[in-house]
Design a protein that fits this description.
This protein is mainly α. It is 74% helix and 0% strand. The protein has helices spanning 2-38, 41-54, 59-62, 69-86, 93-99, 113-123, 129-136, 140-161. Helix 6 crosses helix 8.
């Protein structure tokens, strides 16, 4: 019993130290990202705290060599913000939707409603293609095809912007 406490205590301390280091390195960037969506400093800080509360549980995943930590933290924030965006209780709903990255995006405005739903589900809400297929009562193959169409729209839009 004592050995478990001795081995788990340093591990807990190292996870805590690693989480603190990640906070020191990425909190400001992530706070700006979250604030861009919620447009309220105190609400953004609450979501930032919620994200970093989960960091010690994901420290092994975040410390892998091939992981982009900021991107992974943004995904964690999107998952937290998905609940925020689903609740219509906020006074500033119209302002909030104007600041969401996918609203009024020049690429997503070229997509059909189905393409937008699939792209937003995968990219912003971190849903799997199988979950989206179930939600939309379609096959996974149809969802994958739709997602490929989304990437083609984005790719073609970017190709047209390049200076030759």
């Amino acid at each position: 019993m004592n050995t478990q406490l001795q081995t788990s205590a340093p591990m807990a301390q190292s996870k805590s130290a690693a989480a603190r280091n990640l906070y020191n390195s990425y909190a400001a960037k992530l706070l700006g990202y979250i604030f861009g969506v919620v447009q309220n400093q105190s609400v953004a800080e609450q979501y930032l705290a919620a994200v970093f509360k989960d960091v010690p549980n994901k420290i092994d995943e975040l410390s892998k060599a091939d992981v982009n930590v900021l991107c992974h933290l943004q995904i964690m924030a999107r998952q937290k913000l998905a609940d925020f965006l689903k609740t219509p209780d906020h006074d500033a709903d119209r302002k909030i939707t104007q600041n969401i990255p996918w609203v009024n995006n020049k690429y997503t405005t070229l997509m059909t409603a189905l393409q937008q739903q699939v792209f937003f589900g995968v990219h912003y809400q971190c849903k799997t293609t199988s979950n989206i297929a179930k939600e939309l009562n379609k096959t996974e193959e149809e969802i994958r095809k739709t997602l490929k169409e989304c990437f083609t729209i984005i790719r073609n839009g970017r190709d047209n912007e390049r200076v030759h």
